[in-house]
Amino acid sequence: MNENCIFCKIVAGDVPSQQFYQDELVTAFQDISAQAPVHVLIVPNQHFNDLGEMGDAQAKILGRIVQVAGQLAASEGIASEGWRLVTNIGKHGGQEVFHTHFHLLGGRPLGPLLAR
Ligand code: AMP
Ligand code: ZN
User: Fold this and answer.
1) Is there a smaller number of Cβ atoms within 10 Å at the N or the C end of the chain?
2) Residue 19 CB–ligand 1 contact under 6 Å
């Protein structure tokens, strides 16, 4: 638990969120500023600043995140049309919250991967 981290507080339930899923490793909740009809953030319960801090020792957590993304895509009804799973790292990645998180996006055509 990082005392200054908003996502640690969401995982702990100290900051409210619309939660989709939680288990012993990961938590999934609604993005507060959704950019698509489905925009869910999936985070490790443990604090890591970004994906670059996670390695072999976190393989189980990272596997769970990807698995939960697929399950939520199905339960949110976007599995057949398709979806995107994105994590931003650092300045060039446009990261704003420094607790590893993956954006599950879908529900409309998402356009090109990168702004032109
Ligand atoms: P990133 O730019 O990849 O770091 O994305 C951070 C995301 O966190 C943005 O999409 C924000 O809308 C989202 N966000 C920030 N604060 C909250 C919050 N309290 N609850 C839910 N989502 C949040
Ligand atoms: Zn955190």
Assistant:
1) C
2) no
86 lines ligand 1 (CB under 6 A): no
CA separation for the pair 107, 38 (Å, rounded): 6
Q: What is the rounded (10 degree) CA torsion for 56, 59, 65, 71?
A: 150
Choose the residue to mutate in 50, 97, 99, 100 for probing ligand 1, maximizing ligand atoms within 8 Å of C-beta.
97
**Active site amino acids:** 101
The rounded Å distance from CA 91 to ligand 2 centre is 18
What confidence tier does 115 reach under pLDDT thresholds 50, 70, 90? Answer: confident
pTM above the 0.90 mark?
A: yes
Say if strands 102-106 and 83-86 run parallel, antiparallel, or are unpaired: antiparallel
